[in-house]
From TrEMBL:
Cellular component GO terms, alphabetical: cytosol
Active site feature: E26, S212, S348
Residues reported in the UniProt entry to bind Mg(2+) 1: D324, E337
Function: Cell wall formation.
Protein name, per record: D-alanine--D-alanine ligase
MF terms in GO: ATP binding; D-alanine-D-alanine ligase activity; metal ion binding
The organism of origin for this protein: Kitasatospora phosalacinea
InterPro entries reported for this sequence: ATP-grasp, ATP_grasp_subdomain_1, D-Ala_lig_Van_CS, D_ala_D_ala, Dala_Dala_lig_C, Dala_Dala_lig_N, PreATP-grasp_dom_sf
Catalytic function, reaction form: 2 D-alanine + ATP = D-alanyl-D-alanine + ADP + phosphate + H(+)
Pathway stated in the Swiss-Prot or TrEMBL entry: Glycan biosynthesis; Cell wall biogenesis; peptidoglycan biosynthesis
Listed GO biological process terms: cell wall organization; peptidoglycan biosynthetic process; regulation of cell shape
EC number: 6.3.2.4
Broad class of enzyme this protein falls into: ligase
NCBIfam families in the record: D_ala_D_alaTIGR (TIGR01205), PRK01966.1-4 (NF002528)
Length: 380
């Protein structure tokens, strides 16, 4: 893409800044998500400005070349692969009233790239999905797709997600949280180990504010606990430990329509027998099966959809979310977690669930952008 101001003809269409990559460990997943969106967005309705955020946090102008943003030989793609410059920076508007995007490069005069009408933030994990980017966009007054600051932050933090789920009267499973300062003293570690042991085995040790199953360890022997906590702490100093459950892993998508949020048909994750659980490799490399629709009774479908919408509204979500459940052997539903910006890769469950519900991929993107353009920023 050339670095120049958009023409009047181009400006007639809403201009979408697709922001992806980012500083989190889910950088590569975000790039794959962006590639899928770039392939499918309706170019007759929208002009597209792809912006990649590098691992170091530089906002880079990138080529509109989704073919270069794919998983190759098991390796995740990177923003640096598609950045148009190794040093140039993109700056979004910093104050309400201006939507001009500016490109600057060392030794050259800044160039105005035109105005942006709406931002589609496809960042996963901290520094993007957690309310940080949403706060920046609120300050600048630029409309964006998805939940606002609070819902994004709460949805990213598994501890507070569970607290709200429990306040709604829904079941969030048994868990404990290991705070950063607690694990840094021997007395604190002993206290944490005691709470964790009381949950019973097996356990899942997770970074509290991460996604894509990165940094998660299934612990079947308490002798392996400390190593699992340290692995989770590599991604987040705050750790959540959940008691393992026997149950079917069921997901449900929520999408905001003009008359309010609705839930999709549910999907069931069927993990390949070579994997202990639905970890990063099973999701993105091995491509374990996701059955859509899930083999549920009509009553079970109705209940999961009801609970998914209740969680969506309880957290104050907007636009979209994926709510993950376990259907336990006794028939209870356990709400596992909420993703306020679920994956949009070609194998992601969220767009597939909506396609099975009657909203194909391109229409799904259009609905999200239309809703964002209709909604104001600020208190609402």
């Amino acid at each position: 893409m050339s670095i120049e101001q958009s023409s009047p003809n181009q400006a007639a269409k809403p201009r979408v800044a697709i922001v992806f990559g980012g500083r989190s460990s889910e950088h590569g997943v975000s790039v794959v998500t962006a590639a899928s969106v770039l392939r499918s967005i309706d170019r007759s309705k929208y002009e597209v400005l792809p912006i990649g955020i590098t691992h170091e946090g530089r906002w880079a102008l990138v080529g509109d070349e989704p073919s270069r943003m794919a998983i190759t030989d098991g390796r995740m793609p990177d923003v640096d692969q598609v950045a148009e410059s190794a040093e140039g920076q993109v700056a979004l508007p910093l104050a309400p009233g201006s939507r001009e995007v500016v490109w600057s490069e060392p030794g050259a005069a800044p160039k105005v790239l035109g105005e942006v009408d709406v931002v589609l933030p496809l960042l996963h994990g901290p520094w993007g999905e957690d309310g940080t980017l949403q706060g920046l966009l609120e300050l600048s007054g630029v409309p964006y797709v998805g939940s606002g600051v609070l819902a994004s932050a709460v949805g990213m933090d598994k501890e507070f997600t569970k607290r709200i789920i429990e306040s709604l009267g829904l079941y969030a499973g048994e868990y404990t949280v290991v705070k950063p300062r607690e694990w840094e003293s021997e007395a604190g570690r002993e206290a944490a180990r005691g709470r964790i042991a009381a949950l019973g085995l097996p356990l899942f040790v997770k970074p509290c504010r991460a996604g894509s199953s990165i940094g998660i360890t299934k612990v079947k022997d308490l002798a392996d606990l400390d190593a699992a906590v340290e692995e989770a702490r590599r991604h987040d100093p705050k750790v959540i430990v959940e008691k393992g459950v026997e149950g079917r892993e069921i997901e449900c998508g929520v999408l905001e329509f003009e008359d309010g949020p609705r839930a999709s048909v549910a999907a069931e994750v069927l993990v390949d027998g070579d994997f202990e659980f639905y970890d990063f490799e099973a999701k993105y490399i091995d491509s374990s099966e996701v059955r859509i629709p899930a083999d549920l009774t009509a009553a079970e479908q109705d209940e999961i959809r009801r609970q998914a919408v209740e969680v969506f509204e309880g957290l104050g979500c907007e636009g979209l979310a994926r709510v993950d459940f376990f259907l336990l052997p006794d028939g209870r539903w356990m709400v596992n977690e909420v993703n306020t910006m679920p994956g949009f890769t070609p194998i992601s469950a969220y767009p597939k669930m909506w396609e099975a519900t009657g909203v194909p991929y391109a229409e799904l993107i259009d609905r999200l952008l239309t809703a964002a353009l209709r909604r104001s920023t600020g208190l609402r």
